[in-house]
Amino acid sequence: MSNVTSRALVPISPSNTLPALSSTTAGSVCVRAGRRRLFSSEMRVEVANNTDAPMMCAFTAWAGQREISLEPAFEWIDAFTTGTITLRVPWSARSVTVRMRGASQEYTASADVPRPKGVALALALPLLGVVALGGAVVSKPAIESLSVPDRLYAGDAARVAYAYRGVGSGRYTVTSGASIIASGSLHDSGGAFSFATGKNAAAYDIAVNVSGPTGAAQEHRTIRTQPLPQPYTPAAISNLSVQPAVAVSGKPFTARYNANAQDGVLKLIDDKGVTWDAQSYRANGSTPFVAPHVEHAQRFRLQLDVRRDATLAQAVTGLLVMPASPSPSPSPANATSMNPPAAVSIVTQPSYVVSGQHFVVKPQSAQAGELSGTASLQNAEGVDVASAEASGSDPVVLTAPRVAHTTQYFIQATIVHGKSSQLVLVPVDVHPH
């Protein structure tokens, strides 16, 4: 029986039995019987200090007609602290008293000490006889349980629980191959010990030995750690391009890409959503195509769809397909087909185009004709990033977009020569500043 009393400057309860305390109570103390040893007993003291100042907890016991101090004689309980203190009480003690004092409070608890195993046996000796003394005190060691984790990853800490009975001392040893990983003493007849496993998967042999005056016992267990699971990697496409970016009808071009996929498909789709061609994904990142037949310049998109496990990824890039033999434009006067001038092209001035700078677009030579209509600078997807209207012989000036690395764009313009005209598309590299 544990009798607990408390007193303070202001009474906290009319009863001398300490009730269940709320979180606002200043403190509490409780004494309970613990394990019985051969010639001593354990008492467990549960304390709670809910104040903002430390309290002193003193431990005494009654042995016969006198009060003796226990080891330790006292402990300081920090502010806002709860915990359990285990006391080792000699066989001669009959009761234990615990006093916890603060600035304005004092809590007292007492409890009877259970009789040690050795004392109980000593009292039973007259009944058993002097001849049975040795057999009553000692017993043969036996390991009752040895539990190891069912599943363990490499690098985790392994916890092994054990229990044994009988008189004797125990030790454990953990080995992996010829190396000793951990070893130590078993301090109680029941408990657990831990050891760290290596980063690589391996087998660990665990041996527990208990030896005493009347014999010994041994148990073995084996743990096999598993390798760490690989991180999950979803499908991803880091690059998709077409070479050349402007294809000619009936001529080959190549799709180049970088992906971590298991399989996939590439589709050549026009601006109406019609699929003109489809090829399987290749692990080497290169798939050949043949440009479809077109009557005039037409834009397509190359779409890559890939799969990895249960994840999907998609990337799209643009492609311009030019007719193999450009169709002549009708004359403004009589709409009669005229052959365009041969080898007509346009150039930039300066020829080295720098990001964010202005540059002039003009025909390759004065004999080639003049620019007419709108001259535009387009990216690989066919989107205009800059444009200007051509007016007679005045120069056409465009502004290069800002880029972090050299990027290819396309200049599209119409050149008029006499009564004929021709749409010209030429690539231009824009370099970072």
Explain what you see.
The chain has 433 residues and is mainly beta. The protein has four domains: 2-112, Immunoglobulin-like (Sandwich), CATH 2.60.40; 142-224, Immunoglobulins (Immunoglobulin-like), CATH 2.60.40; 237-322, Macroglobulin (MG2) domain (Immunoglobulin-like), CATH 2.60.40; 346-431, Macroglobulin (MG2) domain (Immunoglobulin-like), CATH 2.60.40. The protein is built from two helices and 31 strands. The chain has a five-stranded antiparallel β-sheet, with no helix packed on it. Strands 17-23-22-19-20 form a five-stranded mixed β-sheet, with no helix packed on it. The chain has a five-stranded mixed β-sheet with strand order 25-31-30-27-28, with no helix packed on it. A hairpin with a 4-residue loop joins β19 and β20. Residues 1-23 and 327-342 have low confidence and may be disordered.
SSE map:
Blueprint: E1 2-8, E2 27-36, E3 40-49, E4 55-63, E5 66-77, E6 81-90, E7 95-101, E8 105-112, H1 117-128, H2 133-137, E9 142-147, E10 157-165, E11 169-176, E12 179-186, E13 190-196, E14 203-212, E15 215-224, E16 237-243, E17 246-248, E18 252-259, E19 263-270, E20 275-280, E21 286-290, E22 298-308, E23 311-322, E24 346-349, E25 353-354, E26 358-363, E27 370-378, E28 384-389, E29 396-399, E30 407-417, E31 420-431
Parallel strand pairs: 17-23, 25-31
Antiparallel strand pairs: 1-8, 2-3, 3-6, 4-5, 4-7, 7-8, 9-10, 10-13, 11-12, 11-14, 14-15, 16-18, 18-21, 19-20, 19-22, 22-23, 24-26, 26-29, 27-28, 27-30, 30-31
